[in-house]
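Postdoc handover notes: sequence design on the structure in folder B. Input tokens:
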């Protein structure tokens, strides 16, 4: 069973496809997508999209990461940073103040 589907997948794909400047969109009550804006009514640019992919060498012939060591030690910290930085970009101004 997929962990992302339907409306969420639609939003992620729209964020990647719709704007080459990487602006964040949300689905409004009427069903249309609108840009997320800051307190000055300017679109919030996103350097880190909500979709990401990773690839790595298999650590064993029978399984890419048999003890989840590579995921836990290498990839999890990177993914945690990536998505926390994405949240920071969406919730703070360029001076580091919450919007």
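Designed sequence:
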């Amino acid at each position: 069973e997929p962990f992302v589907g339907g409306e969420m997948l639609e939003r992620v794909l729209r964020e990647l496809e719709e704007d080459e400047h990487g602006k964040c969109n949300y689905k409004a009550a009427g069903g249309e997508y609108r840009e997320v804006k800051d307190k000055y009514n300017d679109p919030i640019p996103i350097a880190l999209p909500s979709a990401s992919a990773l690839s790595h060498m298999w650590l064993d012939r029978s399984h890419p990461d048999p003890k989840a060591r590579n995921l836990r030690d290498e990839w999890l910290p990177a993914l945690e940073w990536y998505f926390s930085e994405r949240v920071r970009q969406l919730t703070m101004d360029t001076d580091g103040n919450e919007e």
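Context for whoever picks this up: The beta strands are 25-27, 33-35. Don't rerun without checking with the PI first.
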